[in-house]
């Protein structure tokens, strides 16, 4: 149960916009639904902007009604669609976007997405003066200022379901599997999933491990009679192909590993109850902060409370939390 901040509404809007941008994440729909219904309930019009910032610069937006967000809370993906909009990195494009919003009578924006989305949101509000509140929507959970992001819990559970199945065949064939999960710059998914699946090893970008050390550990485990089968969870890292290369290198140690890349499976699917509730509470809170005259913030969570975090900090600092990884190390054989 989240405690939502008590805020005094000191202003109102004729219309606000909502968009989802960057990599989609399960429960983005729940967040959209909460933003739309909260605003409509107090007489504010809502425009759904399609394809993230791309729709903002091409004037691709539609008025939303309460029923336009019916039956979406259980659906993965985002009904507004998403995009990684390179053009929005340019100031003249952002100026054009501000003009388009003004022409449509849209006076504030809720932007749901990860790092790139929140960076765009910060620059946009700073330059245009149009109030923006961001919501952390990313399966990676690598956003500074929040312990939890929309979609992370679902992605973790999806990966756990897949790895439990891989474990069955690994045990039957006494095989080693390298299972790659998402996380370009961070190992939050890998660590959480690795602990939950009892992985023999977890490899994450925050703690680079040399291949020799992995090889020697596997060889000594085998010699000690441990590890006829096993799961190593690998965070994808910045360079594509990492896990395949690792499997090749392990051959030099006599280790034959099968590779399984879970990839975009982790981004889809029906959101967990946890993500639906988190996204709903964050959506309500985003609108309430706009009414309380806040801007340039993201709604963060510490697991119990939702709070405003300046977007400037969100994009400046890197989220790093070694606690869970240390716990994982204690559980390895
Ligand atoms: O940012 C979320 C994420 O799913 C990362 O984990 C992954 O590296 C990336 O998006 C993949 O992006 P795309 O779908 O654009 O290839």
UniProtKB/TrEMBL annotation:
<feature type="binding site" description="in other chain">
    <location>
        <begin position="198"/>
        <end position="200"/>
    </location>
    <ligand>
        <name>ADP</name>
    </ligand>
</feature>
<feature type="domain" description="Phosphofructokinase">
    <location>
        <begin position="16"/>
        <end position="289"/>
    </location>
</feature>
<feature type="binding site">
    <location>
        <position position="115"/>
    </location>
    <ligand>
        <name>Mg(2+)</name>
    </ligand>
</feature>
<feature type="binding site" description="in other chain">
    <location>
        <position position="167"/>
    </location>
    <ligand>
        <name>ADP</name>
    </ligand>
</feature>
<feature type="binding site">
    <location>
        <begin position="33"/>
        <end position="37"/>
    </location>
    <ligand>
        <name>ADP</name>
    </ligand>
</feature>
<feature type="binding site">
    <location>
        <position position="175"/>
    </location>
    <ligand>
        <name>substrate</name>
    </ligand>
</feature>
<feature type="active site" description="Proton acceptor">
    <location>
        <position position="140"/>
    </location>
</feature>
<feature type="binding site">
    <location>
        <begin position="84"/>
        <end position="85"/>
    </location>
    <ligand>
        <name>ATP</name>
    </ligand>
</feature>
<keyword id="KW-0479">Metal-binding</keyword>
<dbReference type="InterPro" id="IPR015912">
    <property type="entry name" value="Phosphofructokinase_CS"/>
</dbReference>
<dbReference type="InterPro" id="IPR000023">
    <property type="entry name" value="Phosphofructokinase_dom"/>
</dbReference>
<keyword id="KW-0460">Magnesium</keyword>
<feature type="binding site" description="in other chain">
    <location>
        <begin position="182"/>
        <end position="184"/>
    </location>
    <ligand>
        <name>substrate</name>
    </ligand>
</feature>
<dbReference type="InterPro" id="IPR035966">
    <property type="entry name" value="PKF_sf"/>
</dbReference>
<keyword id="KW-0324">Glycolysis</keyword>
<feature type="binding site" description="in other chain">
    <location>
        <position position="236"/>
    </location>
    <ligand>
        <name>substrate</name>
    </ligand>
</feature>
<keyword id="KW-0021">Allosteric enzyme</keyword>
<feature type="binding site" description="in other chain">
    <location>
        <begin position="138"/>
        <end position="140"/>
    </location>
    <ligand>
        <name>substrate</name>
    </ligand>
</feature>
<keyword id="KW-0547">Nucleotide-binding</keyword>
<dbReference type="InterPro" id="IPR022953">
    <property type="entry name" value="ATP_PFK"/>
</dbReference>
<feature type="binding site" description="in other chain">
    <location>
        <begin position="264"/>
        <end position="267"/>
    </location>
    <ligand>
        <name>substrate</name>
    </ligand>
</feature>
<protein>
    <recommendedName>
        <fullName>ATP-dependent 6-phosphofructokinase</fullName>
        <ecNumber>2.7.1.11</ecNumber>
    </recommendedName>
</protein>
<feature type="binding site">
    <location>
        <position position="23"/>
    </location>
    <ligand>
        <name>ATP</name>
    </ligand>
</feature>
<dbReference type="InterPro" id="IPR012003">
    <property type="entry name" value="ATP_PFK_prok-type"/>
</dbReference>
<keyword id="KW-0418">Kinase</keyword>
<feature type="binding site">
    <location>
        <begin position="114"/>
        <end position="117"/>
    </location>
    <ligand>
        <name>ATP</name>
    </ligand>
</feature>
<comment type="function">
    <text>Catalyzes the phosphorylation of D-fructose 6-phosphate to fructose 1,6-bisphosphate by ATP, the first committing step of glycolysis.</text>
</comment>
<feature type="binding site">
    <location>
        <position position="258"/>
    </location>
    <ligand>
        <name>substrate</name>
    </ligand>
</feature>
<keyword id="KW-0067">ATP-binding</keyword>
<comment type="subunit">
    <text>Homotetramer.</text>
</comment>
<comment type="similarity">
    <text>Belongs to the phosphofructokinase type A (PFKA) family. ATP-dependent PFK group I subfamily. Prokaryotic clade 'B1' sub-subfamily.</text>
</comment>
<keyword id="KW-0808">Transferase</keyword>
<dbReference type="InterPro" id="IPR012828">
    <property type="entry name" value="PFKA_ATP_prok"/>
</dbReference>
<keyword id="KW-0963">Cytoplasm</keyword>
<comment type="pathway">
    <text>Carbohydrate degradation; glycolysis; D-glyceraldehyde 3-phosphate and glycerone phosphate from D-glucose: step 3/4.</text>
</comment>
<dbReference type="GO" id="GO:0003872">
    <property type="term" value="F:6-phosphofructokinase activity"/>
</dbReference>
<dbReference type="Pfam" id="PF00365">
    <property type="entry name" value="PFK"/>
</dbReference>
């Amino acid at each position: 149960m989240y405690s939502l901040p008590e805020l005094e509404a000191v202003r109102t809007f004729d219309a606000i916009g909502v968009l989802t941008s960057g990599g989609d994440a399960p429960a983005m729909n729940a967040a959209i639904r909460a933003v739309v219904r909260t605003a409509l309930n107090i007489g504010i019009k809502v425009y759904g902007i399609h394809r993230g910032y791309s729709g903002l610069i091409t004037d691709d937006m539609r008025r939303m009604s309460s029923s336009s967000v019916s039956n979406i809370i259980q659906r993965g993906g985002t009904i507004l669609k998403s995009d990684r909009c390179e053009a929005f990195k340019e100031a003249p494009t952002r100026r054009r976007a501000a003009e388009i919003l003004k022409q449509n009578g849209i006076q504030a924006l809720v932007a749901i997405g990860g790092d790139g989305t929140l960076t765009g949101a910060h620059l946009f509000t700073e330059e245009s003066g149009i109030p923006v509140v961001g919501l952390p929507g990313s399966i990676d959970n690598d956003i500074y200022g929040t312990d939890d992001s929309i979609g992370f819990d679902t992605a973790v559970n999806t990966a756990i379901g897949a790895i439990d199945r891989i474990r069955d065949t690994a045990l039957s064939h006494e095989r080693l599997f390298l299972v790659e999960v998402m996380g370009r710059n961070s190992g939050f998914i890998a660590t959480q999933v690795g602990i939950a699946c009892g992985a023999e090893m977890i490899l994450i970008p925050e703690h680079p491990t040399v291949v020799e050390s992995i090889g020697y550990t596997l060889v000594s485990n085998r010699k000690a009679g441990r590890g006829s089968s096993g799961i190593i969870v690998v965070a994808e890292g910045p360079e594509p192909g990492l896990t395949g290369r690792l499997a090749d290198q392990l051959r030099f140690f006599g280790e034959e590993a099968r590779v399984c890349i879970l990839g975009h499976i982790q981004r889809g699917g029906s959101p967990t109850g946890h993500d639906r509730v988190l996204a709903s509470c964050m959506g309500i809170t985003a609108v309430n902060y706009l009414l309380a005259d806040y801007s340039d913030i993201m709604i963060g969570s510490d697991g119990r409370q939702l709070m405003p975090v300046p977007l400037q900090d969100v994009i400046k600092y890197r989220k790093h939390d070694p606690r869970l990884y240390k716990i994982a190390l204690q559980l390895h054989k």
